[in-house]
């Protein structure tokens, strides 16, 4: 089984390949139907208890989390290790 045959690798590849088009489409929908964005702004998805605190989850928060998670998938582990090994400003990678 090669690395591209694994289910997680396929999922990561699909997300990287199509997420930008989903974002572009969402901007087009937002331009055409701005009321839809205002309607989902306050759409709640429930609550989560974390260390005794109740956190509310909303659709915009989950959309942002998905976007940031996808960006994190594109980070190479070696580059991340270099950032932590040289955290000062002006370090060249």
Oligomer: single chain
Please state how the strands of the largest beta sheet are arranged side by side.
1-2
Uncertain segments are none
Q: Give the N-to-C terminal Cα separation.
A: 33 Å
Structural class: alpha+beta
Number of discrete helical segments: 4
Shape: extended
Q: Helical percent range? A: 55-70%
Pattern of helices and strands: HHEEHH
Total count of strands: 2
Q: If you compute it from the alpha carbons, what radius of gyration comes out, rounded to the nearest whole angstrom?
A: 18 Å
Main sheet, how many strands, which sense, barrel? 2 strands, antiparallel
Mean of pLDDT: 81
The proportion of residues in beta strands is: 5-15%
Compact overview of the structure:
This protein has 93 residues and is α+β, with helices and mostly antiparallel strands.
Walk me through the structure:
With 93 residues, the protein is an alpha+beta fold. It is 61% helix and 14% strand. The protein has helices at residues 7-32, 34-40, 59-73, 77-85; strands at residues 44-50, 53-58. A two-stranded antiparallel ribbon has the order 1-2. Helix 1 (7-32) packs across helix 2. The two termini are 33 Å apart.
Give the SSE map.
Elements: H1 7-32, H2 34-40, E1 44-50, E2 53-58, H3 59-73, H4 77-85
Quick tags:
single chain, 93 residues, alpha+beta, two-stranded antiparallel ribbon, 4 helices, 2 strands, 14% strand
């Amino acid at each position: 089984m090669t690395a591209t045959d694994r289910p997680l690798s396929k999922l990561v590849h699909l997300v990287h390949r199509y997420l930008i088009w989903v974002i572009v489409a969402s901007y087009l929908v937002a331009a055409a139907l701005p009321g839809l964005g205002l309607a989902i702004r306050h759409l709640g998805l429930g609550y989560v208890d974390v260390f005794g605190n109740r956190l509310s989850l909303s659709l915009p928060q989950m959309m942002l989390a998905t976007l940031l998670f996808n960006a994190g998938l594109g980070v190479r582990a070696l580059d991340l290790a270099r950032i932590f090994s040289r955290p000062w400003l002006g370090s060249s990678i």
